[in-house]
Write a structure and sequence with these properties.
This protein is α/β, with parallel strands linked by helices. 49% of the residues lie in helices and 8% in strands. It has a five-stranded mixed β-sheet with strand order 3-2-1-4-5. The protein starts with a helix and ends in a 15-residue tail after the last helix. 38% of the residues are buried.
Amino acid sequence: MAAYDDVWDEFDLWDQWEELEEMDAPRVVVRRPRRIVTDRMNPFTAMSDNEFVDRFRLRKNSMYDLIEEIREHLPAPTDSRGCPVPAHLQTLIALRCMMSGDHQMTLGDCHDVSQTTVSQCLKVVSRAVASLSRHHIMAPSGNDRQRTVQEFYAIHGMPGVIGAIDCTHIAIVRPSVANPEVFRCRKGYFSMNVQAVCGPDLLFHNVVARWPGSVHDSRILDNSRLCAQLEETLEPQYHLLGDAGYALKRYLLTPVAVPTNDHERAYNSSHTHTRNTVERAFGVLKKRFAYLGKKMRTSLDTTKAIIVAAVVLHNIAVKTRLVMPQDGAEHAIINVNALHNGVPVDRQGNAQGRLKRQQIIRIFLNLILIMDDCSQLFHSVPPLSLSFLSPS
């Protein structure tokens, strides 16, 4: 036992001797080399016009104007590496996220910023862009309204139309609210039910993005500012077109539920072709900004801002005649709203709405049927023009 203790005493002495030698030796401090962040690529100069549009969904000059409009609303944040993110890069990061729908960490690696910075840019930029909605999302008036009516009439002979209205569901994750089940739509997933009115050129005139997915389309309209404006100020010769989920009103025409003659079937056909513009507009919007077509994982407030911001950016693209190759390609004349949430709706509508619809069926579409019959009988003679029916 004594020999065993002597051995361990020798080891202890040897360890103490090594410690003394290390203390006497000069200390060498090895500093970790500082990470050098390379200059971030400037897409305005590094990309061609087509490449820029493919990645950010706007032309360069439109992007310049947008950045100047929202610059004062953007802070000067820094990422986790201590590098400032300029206003133009914040905007480009947010739009790239909305366009692609990629994971934020992947986008952060592409732009040499952290995931937290990408999330912050998306939140701040979307709210800044959404604040421009009053300047970029508005109903036509004056000469623009007359042009809208004429362009709608040119689609399939439906007179007096100033817009097509419908709702679309934007999928979201289960929200952190007191009663999250109100956000579960009729198809079983959590969503936001977004109402919009669009024109014949797929330009959005109105958008409401604050209702849970379980709320019926007609309830959203009845509780919107748009409904009050239509009831109080819209002239009787104008109206919107809506599907069977809405009640027939003086300012909102719906299809005939059970058509019984050729006139009513012709009215329904014209109604379907004309109202289809809002379906195409929703399709183009979700193709331009794929983030809307995926399950959004942002907070509810940020989600609402992103939806409105996407509509603003879509309108900017439409006004600058930026047409994506796939615009409207997959949106034929189909009834995508055949099913509704089961909320009872007064489909007979009020007396003014029924009278107005019957007048259109009797007067305008009766002439269209006569001309169709004539063109079939005298197929060698080109069909007559209905320009005299077009509103002045």
